[in-house]
Amino acid sequence: MKNATVAIALIATTLACQPAAAQTVTMVVGYSPGATYDIYTRNFARHLGKHLPGNPNVIVQNMAGAGSLRSANFIFTTAPKDGTTLGVFARGLAMQPLLDPTGVQYEPLKFNWIGSLSADVSLVLSWHTKPFKTVEDLRTREMVVAGTGSGADSVIFPYILNGVLGTKMKIVTGYPGAADFLLAVERQEADGTAGVSWSGLNASKPEWIAKKQINVIVQLGLKKHPGMNPAPLVMEFAKNDTDRGVLELIFSRQDMGYPVVAPPGTPPERVAVLRKAFEAVLRDPEYLADAKKQHLEAEFMRGEEVEALIKRVMASPPDVFERARKAIEAGKGATLEKAKK
User: Fold this and answer.
1) Average pLDDT of 200-218?
2) Coil, strand, or helix at residue 253?
3) What is the tens place of the pLDDT at every residue in 28-44?
4) Which among 95, 127, 142, 117 is positioned nearest to 287, based on CA atoms?
5) How big is the CA angle at 73 (ends 92 and 324), to the nearest 5 degrees?
6) Among residues 170, 181, 213, 280, which is most buried (max CB within 10 A)?
C-alpha cells in the first residue's frame, strides 16, 4: 500500500510539471500547408517531442484565415490552457491591437511567449518581366501586390510603405498563405508582393533566386540580410524622426520572425518547461541539420526576449502610432479582395 501511495504521488508530481500529460501536443499554425510559417513549424514539431517530458507526439494543425488572425484568436480564447496546444501566427499580430484592432480578440502580453524560431528579413519584389525594380518605380506607377489578410506582413507592409515612402502599391488580399500569393506572382495575377520573407522564399522558391526570376526592390527589416545585397534597406528611405519611428515600429517584428506561444492561463511551471524544451530544440544538432537542408535560418529568440521586444514597441511615442494607424486606415480603404472561386 505504501509503495502504491508513493507511485501515485510521483505521477501527480510529474503531471503537474510537464506540459503534455496527454500523448499529443498540437501546434496550430495560422497558415496553409507549404507557407513559410508552416515549414518552420513542421521542422520544429518534428524535434519538439523528444525534448518534452514523456516524449509526446507533436502534430501540426493548419488554421488559415485572415492572415493568421483566426488562429491567434483561437489560441487566446478557445485552446486548452494546459500546455498541450501551442500557436504559431504572424509576427505582426503582437502589435496589431495598437494599429488596427478590427477582429482582434486577444491581448498580446497575456500570451505566454515561448520563443521565436528565427529572425527574418522580408522583401518587396516583382516578377522579372514587370517594370518595377526600384523604390522610385513604385512611387511613379501602381504595382499590384498579393497578400493574405488583416495584420499579416504582406498587407501591413505595403500599407506602411505607401503611407511613409509614398509608394503606389495596390494590395489584393484573400490568399491563404505565402505559397498561394507567390503562385499568384508566378502566374502574373499580381505584379509582385511586399511581405514574403527571404528565408521563406529561399526555402520554397530557391529557383527564383538562382534563375533571377524576381526583382528584389527593397529589404524590410532593421538590418540587411547579407544574402540579399545590394538591395537597399527600408530604413535608408526615412526622411525624418517620425518616418524612422514608424518604420522601426513596424519592422522590429522581423527580429521575432516566427513566434511560438502558449495560451493565457497556462500554468507557469508548464510555460517554463515549454521554454526550456524550445531552447533545447533550437540547439539540437539534428534540428539544425534539418533546418539547413530546408534553407531555414535558426537565429532564435528566447520567450523572455520576445516579451521584452513587444513591451518596447508598445512604448513607441503617440505620434508614431498615429502616423502608422493613418497609413493602415488609408490602405484598408483602397484594398481589393481576391475574387472567391
Assistant:
1) 91
2) helix
3) 999 989 888 999 999 99
4) 117
5) 30
6) 181
Q: Which of 145, 148, 210 is CA-nearest to residue 178?
A: 148
Q: What distance in Å separates the CA atoms of residue 185 and residue 305, rounded to the nearest whole number? A: 35
3-state secondary structure 84-147: CEEEECCHHHHCHHHHCCCCCCCCHHHCEEEEECCCCCEEEEEECCCCCCCHHHHHHCCEEEEC
Is residue 332 packed enough to be buried (19+ CB in 10 Å), middle (13-18) or exposed (0-12)?
middle
Q: What is the pTM of this model?
A: 0.81
All domains of the chain in start order, with CATH? 22-119+255-314 (3.40.190.150), 122-253+318-337 (3.40.190.10)
Query: Which cell numbers in the block locate residue 201?
Result: 522564399
Q: Where are the alpha helices (DSSP H) in 294-335?
A: 303-314, 318-334
User: Is residue 120 within 8 Å of residue 300, measured between CB atoms?
Assistant: no
Do you know the residue count of the chain?
Answer: 341
The one-letter code for the residue type at 15 is: L
Q: Cβ(271)–Cβ(316) under 8 Å?
A: no
Query: pLDDT tens-digit profile of 243-297?
Result: 999 999 999 999 999 999 999 999 999 999 999 999 999 999 999 999 999 888 9
Name the DSSP class of 56.
-
Place of cell 503562385: 183
